[in-house]
Design a protein that fits this description.
Distance between the termini: 86 Å
Strand content: 35-45%
Helix content: 25-40%
Oligomer: single chain
Radius of gyration: 39 Å
Number of strands: 31
């Protein structure tokens, strides 16, 4: 029993993920030694460590190896941690900014490496000059003043780093808000994110760091504050407004009070606040080249397209579904369903879409699937025209058109309809047989005194009235059916009529996210509902769907006030979605969004 109890205690062992890192100072002085330590949280394979070349540095000591281990038992689970460190002492040969190349090591046959580490080396004159100047100023200066002066202007920098500043409309841009620091960061406050006017923005998960980077010839610890994928929605020069952040740095300065040999003392720690702001960034957005095919609707990236017809042979009056799947990398969120042309005897219903999209630094990756349900009414053999989808390839700088192969559909007679026709035919024949015994009547003899009892219906006023009414009904029915067929082929009109229904469906999805308290999904669905409604209702292409275009379109229709309402709701959604400090209530945003769409519908129908 005792052995079983001990076995249960040590039965769970938490395996820690292997990490291999390097610790080195950011700033060093020529001729003065410093330590570089390589840390591993596992036991390495024998003789597997490969050190860096240490160019521009002299190795005066090392490698020295230290290792240790500890075991913790919590609730019957044993956690074992191992520390393994390799230390060198280096002396810089000259001033400048130099890199320590990655070191490698193996654990159980698997190789691990450190990151490339930058070190800024100053000359002795630069170091002593800064020290002497600071010493002269410290004599008559308070400790708090010295703490503020110790943080130089370029010790804390806030930047918005873009992957490119010249792109095509719809081409994704990777934007990273970075904090560069040469001081000890204790915290931050008052963050204000950029509005990204003219862009569709999507936040991406990112590793915060810190990372050792070089900026303007100086070495910094870089922290990734946030990362976005930006999709420009209009051509021209777009300006990204500055982002703001207040950083709290901890600084240790020598105290003016006397040194206490028992408690140590001699230094005090101060919190220094610095209000930082990113520079204004301009992005040049180029328009697409001329000569775009008719099937191009603003898709940018690199895609593939596959198709699947639910059946190649069906009976008349049966349902068939054509499924198109567009997958790849690019602005997947803005892809619209390609146009499907069907024979006139086919009835096409609302296209259904399904998507699975992941936002990555390279852009949105995944697929969008479109289902085209339709019903075939007449028998025969039909050819379904190829479906075309065109996108703009950024690397090739040209349009690429994808097309499905020609599809054939065999429609056989409807069995249920044939059985009914046979039953009617048999019924008529049986009736004819039953009346054979009464088809010869007795001939009446004598003088036929024939006289009209009732005036003939033919050519009577009622007859002509009925004929005229039937003619009018036929003419009206002709024009109604003709208008229905014309409207059914008018994709713009159909999208406009469906806009309200699609918006209501998306509002219901947003309401579900609101009940689940999923803020990101809620605001994404609200933005999709509002932008989708405006684009479908007023036939605005996704590539041209901006606030200015919406204002102009609604003002032209006499709904300027309603335009400001819906734009205000969109602005609240974007602010609440991407700003950590946003305080918008989901219920209020939801009600305002539904109310804005209702007001637009009422204003347009007047």
């Amino acid at each position: 029993m005792l052995f079983a109890a001990l076995l249960s205690v040590f039965s769970v062992v938490a395996a820690e993920e292997v990490s291999f890192s390097v610790n080195a100072p950011m700033i060093a002085t020529v001729g003065e030694g410093f330590r570089v330590e390589f840390e591993l949280n596992a036991k390495p394979d024998s003789d597997s460590f490969v050190p860096p070349t240490f160019e521009n540095f002299d190795v005066v000591a090392g490698p020295s190896v230290s290792q240790g281990s500890s075991i913790q038992i919590v609730n019957g689970a044993m956690n074992k941690s191992i520390s393994y460190a390799i230390t060198y002492v280096l002396v810089p040969q000259k001033a400048g900014t130099f890199a320590i190349s990655p070191a490698t090591i193996e654990v159980k046959g698997k190789s691990y490496s450190t990151q490339r580490t930058m070190i800024e080396v100053r000359s002795a004159e630069q170091t002593n000059g800064a020290t002497n100047q600071g010493g002269r100023q410290e004599q008559n200066e308070s400790a708090e003043s010295r703490a503020n002066r110790s943080i130089e202007k370029d010790d804390l920098l806030y930047r918005l780093v873009l992957s490119s500043k010249s792109v095509y409309r719809g081409e994704p841009i990777r934007a990273i808000l970075k904090l560069y620091s040469r001081a000890n960061i204790a915290g931050s406050e008052g963050a204000k994110m950029p509005a990204f006017n003219g862009f569709w923005s999507q936040q991406v998960d990112i590793e915060q760091g810190p990372f050792r980077e070089t900026l303007n010839g100086k070495v910094y610890e870089a922290y990734n504050i946030a990362e976005y994928l930006l999709y420009p929605q209009q051509s021209g020069t777009l300006t990204i407004e500055p982002a703001e952040l207040t950083v709290i740095a901890q600084v240790m300065v020598r105290s003016n009070r006397s040194f206490d040999p028992f408690f140590g003392g001699g230094h005090e720690v101060y919190n220094v606040r610095r209000a930082l702001k990113t520079p204004e960034v301009k992005v040049q957005v180029k328009e697409f080249p001329a000569g775009a095919p008719a099937s191009f609707t603003g898709a940018v990236g690199r895609y593939t397209m596959s198709h699947k017809l639910s059946s190649s042979e069906v009976a008349a009056n049966s349902a068939v579904t054509l499924q198109l799947t567009i997958s790849g990398t690019g602005n997947l969120n803005f892809l619209s369903a390609p146009t499907l042309s069907l024979p006139s005897s086919f009835e096409l219903y609302d296209v259904k879409s399904e998507e699975k999209i992941q936002n990555k630094p390279s852009g949105s990756v995944g697929y969008r699937r479109f289902d085209y349900p339709f019903i075939v009414r007449a028998e025969g053999e039909y050819d379904i025209a190829p479906v075309e989808f065109t996108y703009f390839d950024i690397e090739k700088r040209q349009y690429v058109t994808l097309s499905t192969p020609p599809m054939k559909l065999m429609v056989t007679p409807d069995k249920s309809s044939t059985a009914q026709q046979q039953a009617v035919s048999v019924g008529i024949k049986r009736e004819d047989v039953r009346l054979l015994g009464e088809d010869i009547r007795f001939i009446k003899l004598g003088y036929p005194a024939l006289r009209s009892v009732v005036a003939p219906f033919a050519l009577s006023p009622l007859y002509w009235a009925i004929m005229v009414a039937m003619l009018l009904i036929a003419v009206v029915a002709y024009f109604v059916v003709r208008k229905y067929i014309r409207d059914s082929r008018n994709v713009v009109l159909v999208k406009g009529k469906r806009a309200n229904k699609v918006a209501i469906k998306r509002f219901r999805i947003a309401e579900k996210y609101m009940r689940e308290q999923d803020r990101r999904a809620f605001y994404e669905e609200m933005l999709r509902a509002l932008w989708g409604y405006l684009g479908d209702r007023f036939n605005i292409p996704v590539a041209d769907l901006t606030r200015e275009v919406v204002r102009e379109e609604l003002s032209r229709r006499g709904a300027a006030n309603e335009a400001e309402c819906v734009i205000a709701v969109i602005a609240r959604c974007e602010e609440a979605q991407y700003s950590p400090a946003a305080s918008a209530e989901m219920k209020d945003v939801y009600e305002e969004g539904v109310d804005a769409v209702s007001k637009i519908e009422s204003a347009i129908k007047k």
